[in-house]
Write a structure and sequence with these properties.
The complex is a heterodimer of chains A (252) and B (482).
Chain A: E1 4-13, E2 16-26, E3 31-35, H1 42-50, E4 55-64, E5 67-68, H2 74-79, E6 82-85, H3 97-111, H4 119-133, H5 150-164, E7 168-172, H6 180-192, E8 199-204, H7 208-212, E9 217-222, E10 225-230, H8 233-241
Parallel strand pairs in A: 3-8, 3-9, 6-7, 7-8
Antiparallel strand pairs in A: 1-2, 1-4, 4-5, 9-10
Chain B: H1 3-13, E1 26-28, H2 35-44, H3 49-63, E2 87-89, H4 104-112, H5 117-124, E3 127-132, E4 135-139, H6 142-147, E5 151-154, H7 155-161, H8 163-169, H9 180-188, E6 191-197, E7 207-212, E8 222-228, E9 233-241, E10 249-251, E11 254-259, E12 264-272, E13 284-294, E14 300-307, E15 312-315, E16 318-321, E17 327-336, E18 341-350, E19 356-365, E20 370-379, E21 387-396, E22 402-411, E23 417-426, H10 429-437, H11 442-453, H12 455-458, H13 463-476
Parallel strand pairs in B: 3-7, 6-8, 7-9, 8-11, 9-12, 10-13, 11-13, 12-14, 13-15, 13-16, 14-17, 15-18, 16-18, 17-19, 18-20, 19-21, 20-22, 21-23
Antiparallel strand pairs in B: 1-2, 3-4, 5-6
Chain lengths: 252, 482
């Protein structure tokens, strides 16, 4: 059984119909990339999967780990192992990054019936993950995303992902706004977290991230439809030809 | 079901965490206010003549005054003749000398509140002068403090044991003529705390008083007086909880602080009185006058307050910066949820040269709560080189609440520098969703955002108080988001 199974998903925002019948199946151990031009519905898909209430699901089914995902609250989805690396991580002034992450981590542990980690044990875990991602120590003590540069925000997303250790990671344009070094670090982090028992959905409109995070499958999203799916070579083809040649394809 | 079981039952079912009452016999005066009642209070407390005279002068002055109408709060008229002005818990012996002599039911209540005196004394190193229904029931660490010459006792005791100090300082910062509620307090105050730190002494522990309103329909009229002599330092904590009541209860306390040359007083408050139910029924009216006088050169007074309770809060902890180079500070978090109203802020009166003041006010409004910041920065003619910085931030949760800011600035000396910054923000759906996505419930997410917003003020609180304050904000916001 697939980890994530999306069937004929239609969704939108503020009366606008954006996703028009998405079908997608992701198994554990796989990395899927979704590519598409601006306005094709990539971010809508990620927000709907994470459960944001400003978006509304019109029809369709999403099964995650055997559960009806669409019935779950956003925090329940997080407890079940869904992580969204935001395209624009929000600033929460005054809230210490580590304090926040410990609270999130322990919520997830509580849900799994595991004992909460105390401050010392959590700090040890955090230090280990920081080493893995080559992060500056001061990131821990700063307020959550407040005054972070674009690159720092994205690194912080991947850092949170490393600590929370999700089953399904959704990376929404994590590469946008990153210089090449940051891109490599972020990709490196994502690769280190790849395991046979988890999966990732990488949303991007550039091929360059996929040079570093090599996907098993590539899907092209156009006007709210997946119009073409293929292997990693599809990304290269898109890089070369652009999206126009796919414009008249029917939904898959 | 026994009474204590009922009490626990009520406690468990109640929305308000501290909503229970204790079965302590009270010695209660008939309702209403007259010269006879003022005399009764004074007699009950075996006060010397000068106190009775002072109380009577205050009472007669009060009769000539009118309740203030300018605060941005609304409530039905208070019937001052239906209030009981004196209620003292009956102890088995008059004037308990140690905890062993304190009514076990009172100790039990403190245990439920998690402020066991013994525990506090032993573990936290905090000297607690516990006040319930206006009479101190136990004072701790007294011996240790006495060695340093520090006086920390109930007001009643201070009047009897240290009448010269009381005569000298009582009303020296907040005279009975000051305002309506201060006059009322002066006439009928039943007890409170007194603290004197002698010259050059640094008080080794945080002094702490827990207030608790307990008898039905009893107005609370506490009075606190803290005097830090030359070069002295003291940090004072005031924490409050009250049991659930249907009727509104009036609380009109007065706090006076005096800092002489090079002295420093840090006064921290966590106020969590019953705010009333979701529809605004019940709750405490908290009309308090708090003022500090930096009387000496280089003296410093800091007010830090976390106000989450009460149906109505009307208080302006202020500093009179009389001594040259003296410093006044005011750090405040005021939260209003459901139908709570708060009109709070400070006054910084710069009189001496090179006086400095800092104001950081964080107002949080949720539900239908109304939150007003009202502050006065006054630079007098002689206050050459005076400086003030004010920052007033408001955070709104939902769209039915309100935030208001009334800053008053009067500058009479052209060398003065006065800065005022203000901001208003809303808890964003994107912020809540971000935290939801990491596994936090909406309740926890909002609580976290609000705590972050209040951080600058919490930093000023002593450690154990800061933790309590954070929890309190979370509890106070329950039900504010759907």
């Amino acid at each position: 059984m697939a980890l994530l199974e999306i069937r004929n998903l239609n969704a939108g925002i503020a009366g606008k119909h954006i996703l028009k019948g998405i079908n997608l199946s992701i198994n554990a151990g796989e990395v899927h990339a979704i590519m598409g031009p601006n306005g094709s519905g990539k971010s809508t898909l990620s927000q709907v999967l994470a459960g944001r209430k400003t978006f509304n699901v019109i029809s369709g089914e999403v099964t995650y780990n055997g559960k009806n995902l669409l019935e779950l609250e956003p925090e329940e989805r997080a407890h079940e192992g869904i992580f969204l690396a935001f395209q624009y991580p929000v600033e929460i002034p005054g809230v210490n990054n580590t304090y926040f992450l410990k609270a999130a981590y322990n919520e997830i542990r509580k849900h799994r019936g595991e004992p909460e980690l105390d401050a010392m044990d959590f700090l040890a875990l955090v230090k280990e993950k920081m080493k893995l991602l080559h992060l500056e120590q001061d990131l821990l003590n700063r307020p959550l995303n407040e005054g972070f540069s674009g690159g720092e925000k994205k690194r912080n997303e991947i850092f949170q992902m490393a600590v929370l250790d999700p089953k399904l990671a959704i990376l929404d344009e994590t590469d946008s706004g990153l210089d090449i070094d940051a891109l490599r670090d972020v990709a490196d982090g994502v690769n280190k977290l790849r395991r046979p028992d988890n999966a990732a959905l990488v949303i991007t409109h550039y091929q360059r991230l996929l040079n570093y995070v090599v996907p098993d499958f590539v899907h092209v999203l156009l006007n709210g439809c997946i119009v073409k799916s293929g292997g990693k070579e599809l990304a290269l083809e898109l890089e070369e030809k652009g999206y126009d040649w796919l414009a008249c394809q029917p939904c898959l | 079901m026994s009474d204590s079981d009922k009490t626990i039952e009520q406690f468990v079912q109640s929305d308000y965490k501290y909503g229970f009452t204790t079965n302590v016999e009270t010695d209660t005066a008939p309702p209403g206010l007259s010269e006879d009642i003022v005399r009764l209070i004074s007699r009950k407390k075996n006060e010397p003549e000068f106190m009775l005279e002072w109380r009577l002068k205050a009472y007669r002055h009060w009769l000539t005054m009118e309740e203030p109408k300018w605060p941005n709060v609304h409530y039905p008229p208070i019937d001052y003749q239906s209030i009981i002005y004196y209620a003292a818990p009956k102890s088995r012996k008059p004037g308990p000398k140690s905890l062993d002599e304190v009514d076990p039911a009172i100790l039990e209540m403190y245990r439920k509140l998690g402020i066991s005196l013994q525990e506090q004394e032993r573990l936290a190193g905090v000297a607690v002068d516990a006040i319930m229904d206006s009479v101190s029931v136990g004072t701790t660490l007294k011996g240790q403090l006495a060695e340093k010459g520090i006086i920390f006792c109930s007001f009643t005791e201070a009047i009897l044991e240290h009448p010269d100090l009381i005569r000298k300082w009582l009303g020296s910062v907040v005279p009975y003529t000051d305002n309506y509620f201060a006059a009322l307090n002066a006439a009928v105050f039943s007890d409170g705390s007194f603290c004197y730190i002698p010259k050059g002494v640094r008080c080794p522990v945080e002094l702490s008083t827990y207030f608790r309103i307990n008898a039905i329909n009893t107005g609370q009229f506490e009075r606190t007086l803290i005097v830090a002599d030359e070069g002295a330092y003291v940090s004072y904590l005031e924490g409050c909880t009250a049991p659930m009541r249907d009727e509104n209860q009036l609380h009109a306390a007065v706090v006076e602080l005096v800092a002489l040359d090079n002295a420093q007083i840090k006064y921290s408050t966590v106020q969590n009185w019953y705010p009333g139910d979701k529809d605004g029924k019940g709750g405490i009216y908290n009309f308090v006058t708090k003022r500090g006088k930096c009387a000496g050169v280089n003296s410093k007074i800091s007010w830090t307050q976390v106000e989450t309770g009460s149906a109505i809060t009307w208080k302006y902890p202020s500093c009179i910066l009389l001594g040259d180079n003296s410093i006044g500070e005011f750090y405040s978090v005021a939260l209003t949820n459901n139908c709570q109203q708060a009109d709070t802020g400070t006054k910084m009166i710069h009189i001496g040269k090179n006086t400095r003041s800092t104001i950081v006010s964080k107002g949080i409004s949720a539900g239908r709560g109304q939150n007003s910041y009202r502050g006065l920065v006054k630079i007098m003619k002689g206050a050459t080189g005076a400086r003030n910085f004010s920052q007033c931030d408001s955070l709104l949760i939902g769209d039915k609440c309100g935030a208001h800011t009334f800053p008053y600035i009067e500058v009479n000396n052209k060398t003065a520098t006065v800065e005022h910054e203000a901001s208003t923000s809303k808890v964003g759906e994107d912020q809540v969703f971000y935290l939801n996505q990491r596994g936090l419930s909406t309740q926890d997410a909002v609580s976290m955002i609000v705590n972050g917003f209040s951080k600058e003020v919490f930093k000023q609180l002593p450690m154990e108080f800061a933790v309590e304050a954070q929890k309190l904000l979370g509890v106070s916001l329950e039900g504010s988001v759907g």
